[in-house]
């Protein structure tokens, strides 16, 4: 019998030192972060409880368990066969990106991103002494698309050494198609640009869409890319600090591993490994139900906006629980947009401009029980009505 998970449970998280729930005053709904307000899957809780019961929590060996769990997940969810030796542990996707930039590029090299994009892509490049190059995504008939002419221009610059691809894309919600990924792969091969595919949102492709891991596109691009995954977004495990990097090519993998060692980041967290393995071996049912719940949340938000707040347009997502809202019609100066909703609606959104190329947009998480979303939308409506 399939297990069922109740995504409508509301728990008070403030006393757990939740960053999401303590950053703002208690009366503010924290919808700014890529973290759900759902309890994790029962098999993960059971595996952690069993480990706690053992009572000893010393240094953790580099066993093959993590790699086998990742291999199982990639095969069962994405029909992508990988070899266990391709998998490296890393504390988080963010850490993997920082280490990979260190390992694969030199100061002064250009690192390419597609804006608007997850804000940390900007800061990690800016903080690394590398040069940030941008391939702005184009909003066309309510859907973001890649400007391939500009992409080729950026990649053909001989100083461009690395591309950070967000697949599926935070915040615009695109689940890149086989055709798009093939074109990206061909261009990166032609200009010898290594690609890091951040696939942390891969589990959350909606029913009508298919996530394709970048290295599944061709053997050539597999040898010139790395994929970062983490059960954190899907299973609400961000505090566990256990993720994986999948690097098919041995030379690049070794360079990445050296960066992990040099940064003293190779040691595995006892509970993080247990949680990751339980998620990837036993969490499939949870993801199926989560995606269905999220799609219903997105449908609800879309309908509510159309009916009650038509000045705010939803960019229809294909994946992730992050909605990209076009609020330009409200007429507020971009820098006042998020603060306005914080003040008048008591909701924290991520300001679109922090993602680059996103002025006048807001990012809203719908990883919440539906009752919380209903409250949020009502508060938004009240706030917008004050604008006259
Ligand atoms: C695209 C993307 N990559 C990475 C992260 C962070 O993942 P981690 O907690 O593993 O660093 C996020 C979280 O918002 C994200 O959206």
UniProtKB/TrEMBL annotation:
It is an enzyme of class 4 (lyase). Residues 71-378 form the Aminotransferase class I/classII large domain. Pfam families: Aminotran_1_2. Its EC number is 4.4.1.13. GO terms for molecular function: cysteine-S-conjugate beta-lyase activity; pyridoxal phosphate binding. InterPro entries: Aminotransferase_I/II_large (IPR004839), C-S_lyase_PatB-like (IPR027619), Class-II_PLP-Dep_Aminotrans (IPR051798), PyrdxlP-dep_Trfase (IPR015424), PyrdxlP-dep_Trfase_major (IPR015421), PyrdxlP-dep_Trfase_small (IPR015422). Keywords: Lyase, Pyridoxal phosphate. Its cofactor is pyridoxal 5'-phosphate. NCBIfam families: C_S_lyase_PatB. Belongs to the class-II pyridoxal-phosphate-dependent aminotransferase family. MalY/PatB cystathionine beta-lyase subfamily. This is cysteine-S-conjugate beta-lyase. It comes from Paenibacillus algorifonticola.
